[in-house]
Amino acid sequence: MMKNDTVIDAHNISKIYNPETIPVFAVNDVHLHLNRGEFTALVGPSGSGKTTLLNLIGGLDRPDTGNILINNIDITKLSANKLITFRLNHIGFVFQSFNLIPVLTARENVEMIMHLQKSQRMDRDTRIKQLFEEVQLSDKIDSRPSQLSGGQQQRVAVARALASKPQFVLADEPTANLDSKSASNLLDIMAKLNTEEHITFLFSTHDQRVIDRARRVITLVDGKIVSDTLPTSTA
């Protein structure tokens, strides 16, 4: 049984490609424990398994071995439909390429998650107003992605990730396509959400700017965790 403050508890997880010929361990027998409120960077060279590990934790892919418990629920044992519902209600995702729907406005991109949750209109309106204030884009709420800068699009993506009120957010190279000012602004927003709302963040990143802001840094090499620098304090 996990402690009450534990968000993610992964045991012996591996992801193996080409198992019948020359096996490649994208993730190799990884153990990972994250407490609520952590602000953690997952780092390592290209091909080290960072994105694969993030996808496994987020339920976008399934491990070949091991178990992943999120909020004390073993997501590796959920059916495909139950896993979709679980992701919708518990996990926020921020992707390197933003993944906004071009024909929808910023508001509609964020609201889509709440529609899937069958939220009431009044609740959606209140939540959307709050989210766009938090990401400092209240004046861009009716803009389409093509009318926004890269940094603004990524802030919309953060708002979308938070729309379901997740306890934790997985961010895959969220600053990779941003200039220094936009990246710094985005990190300020996420650090504030982490501190004030105790949202747990796990980043997959090469970006030293993200690493410098993290309070815990986990290094992967060849699918294995080779170092884990624990935070000195928890938000």
Strand order of the biggest β-sheet: 6-7-8-3-9-10
Give unreliable regions as ranges: none
Radius of gyration: 18 Å
* Main pleated sheet: 6 strands, mixed
| Head-to-tail CA distance between termini | 23 Å
The count of helical stretches stands at: 7
Could you tell me the mean pLDDT? 90
**Number of beta strands:** 10
Strand percent estimate = 25-35%
Structural class: alpha/beta
Task: Give helix % range.
Answer: 25-40%
Sum up the overall morphology in one term: globular
SSE pattern: EEEHEEHEHHHEHEHEE
Outline the fold blueprint.
Blueprint: E1 6-17, E2 24-35, E3 39-43, H1 50-57, E4 65-70, E5 73-74, H2 80-90, E6 91-94, H3 106-116, H4 121-134, H5 150-162, E7 168-172, H6 180-197, E8 200-204, H7 208-213, E9 216-221, E10 224-229
Parallel strand pairs: 3-8, 3-9, 6-7, 7-8
Antiparallel strand pairs: 1-2, 1-4, 4-5, 9-10
Helix pairs in contact: 3-5, 4-5, 5-6
